[in-house]
Design goal:
By secondary structure, this protein is mostly helical. The chain has a single domain (8-115), classed as lambda repressor-like DNA-binding domains (434 Repressor (Amino-terminal Domain), Orthogonal Bundle), CATH 1.10.260.40. 56% of the residues lie in helices and 0% in strands. The protein is built from 7 helices and no strands. It has helices at 6-9, 14-27, 32-39, 43-50, 58-67, 86-93, 97-115.
Length: 127
Amino acid sequence: MAKTNDAAKTNDVKPVLGQILRNARRRADVSQRQLAIRTGIAAPSISRIENGRESPSFERFAACLEALGFEPTVELRELSGSRADPNHLAAEAQLTPSQRLESLFEWMRFGDRLGRAPLRPLSGRKG
């Protein structure tokens, strides 16, 4: 029996968080070493986060973004009417394999856009 990759089965956000952190760091024109000094987080750990090999806690991720002059925000939306709505999931089950594949590609495009989402700088704060 072939081994399955458990990471592929889950919604692994490590690469997305890493890309957000790297984009913020580059926009602030700060090196990984400088960010490590600002936050007290080891530079190799920052590198692992940016490369999707380490999953930071929200507190650690927020500390990095704040040290770069950005404010992390979290938005909650109700599931009703969204793609995670149980009624939507039941409708997805009725799709053809081709339609399901297209739906998967839509989710992949969404994940790609999420990784490139613009960051909002803190007002009145300089890096």
